[in-house]
């Protein structure tokens, strides 16, 4: 059986969790406490870069969210999450990459909300720029690939609906707002939904966890340098 090492709030692990559910695959969820468990030897044996998700399929292990999604699509092509048309596939890939390279860093900065007002303003601008791009790219289709739910939704759909919680309303993005509501109504999205208490706890932890990670990384660097 497939095994997914994950953390419920992880923006990298949640798309893989969703893909497994959408493909209706059998799998085991193995939680990893990101307060420090990812730096323990047992987990480092699975992923030497100390982050989730990790997918284990028999004797094969895959790290990195996008690589895992591609592996699942190629290994288990039933209930496909990728279009075959070149232009539509490019749209899906663009949404995936823009989400991870532009929106996600902005979300992290908005969650931490440190004293650097310039960085906070830049994060807001990055998020707004991404939402504008998605709104235009979506056009009048239910999904980015038209009628087919794809990895574009799997990746972007776990973040976009959180923007109002971070001070950026979706009311100006009518198409994207309807798209997000459509996703949240799906049983798979409801299955991975965070409760309000979980989300509030995650936001609080995000203000202290980076310091914990920095300290553990320094310990890891020292350990590696002595090998």
From TrEMBL:
InterPro entries, sorted: Glutathione-S-Trfase_C-like, Glutathione-S-Trfase_C_sf, Glutathione_S-Trfase, Glutathione_S-Trfase_N, GST_C, Thioredoxin-like_sf
SUPFAM superfamilies: GST C-terminal domain-like, Thioredoxin-like
Record Pfam families: GST_C, GST_N_3
Residue ranges annotated for the GST N-terminal domain, each copy included: 1-80
Signal sequence extent: none
Domain spans labelled GST C-terminal: 85-202
Protein name stated in the entry: Glutathione S-transferase family protein
Originating species: Gloeocapsopsis crepidinum LEGE 06123
């Amino acid at each position: 059986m497939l095994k997914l090492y994950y953390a419920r709030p992880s923006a990298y692990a949640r798309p893989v969790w969703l893909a497994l559910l959408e493909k209706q695959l059998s799998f085991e969820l193995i939680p990893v406490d990101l307060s420090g468990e990812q730096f323990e030897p047992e987990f480092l044996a699975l992923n030497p870069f100390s982050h989730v998700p990790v997918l284990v399929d028999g004797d094969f292990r895959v790290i990195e969210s996008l690589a895992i999604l591609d592996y699942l699509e190629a290994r288990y092509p039933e209930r496909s999450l990728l279009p075959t048309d070149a232009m539509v596939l490019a749209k899906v890939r663009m949404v995936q990459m823009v989400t991870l390279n532009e929106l996600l860093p902005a979300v992290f900065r908005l969650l931490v909300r440190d004293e650097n007002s310039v960085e906070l303003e830049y994060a807001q601008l990055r998020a707004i720029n991404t939402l504008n791009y998605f709104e235009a790219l979506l056009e009048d289709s239910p999904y980015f690939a038209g009628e087919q739910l794809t990895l574009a939704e799997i990746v972007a759909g776990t973040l976009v609906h959180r923007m109002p919680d971070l001070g950026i309303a979706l009311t100006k993005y009518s198409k994207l707002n309807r798209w997000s509501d459509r996703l949240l109504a799906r049983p798979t999205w409801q299955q991975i939904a965070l409760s309000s208490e979980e989300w509030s706890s995650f936001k609080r932890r995000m203000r202290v966890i980076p310091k914990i990670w920095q300290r553990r990384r320094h310990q890891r660097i020292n350990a590696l340098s002595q090998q």
